[in-house]
Design a protein that fits this description.
By secondary structure, the protein is mainly α. It has one domain: Non-ribosomal Peptide Synthetase Peptidyl Carrier Protein, Chain A (Orthogonal Bundle). The chain is 45% helix and 0% strand. The longest helix has 16 residues, at 70-85. The protein is globular, with a radius of gyration of 12 Å.
């Protein structure tokens, strides 16, 4: 696991990546679409992240780029968490 995100994030994201083998590491720059994240999965992942981290994805964060890689997604969640705690 990357030290950049917590275990809950990794477990949640992995659940939406059906092509990612359990032995394969989740890396910051992994293409999540190539790992099986589809449009429905993106919407479900968004809702699950909002519930888990008590954040709301604002318009600027609602792009395909946000869900391109785990690294970008974690940075977005972290930023939203900071604003929510604010």
């Amino acid at each position: 696991m990357s030290a950049k995100w917590d275990d809950q994030f990794e477990e949640l994201v992995r659940g939406f990546l059906p092509f990612l083998d359990t032995a394969e590491p989740l890396t910051e720059d992994m293409n999540m679409r190539d790992a099986g994240l589809d449009s429905l999965g993106t919407v479900e992942l968004l809702g699950a992240l909002e519930d888990l981290y008590q954040v709301r994805f604002v318009d600027d964060a609602l792009t395909m780029d946000t869900f391109a890689t785990p690294g970008v997604l974690w940075k977005t969640v972290s930023k939203l968490s900071t604003v929510a705690a604010g």
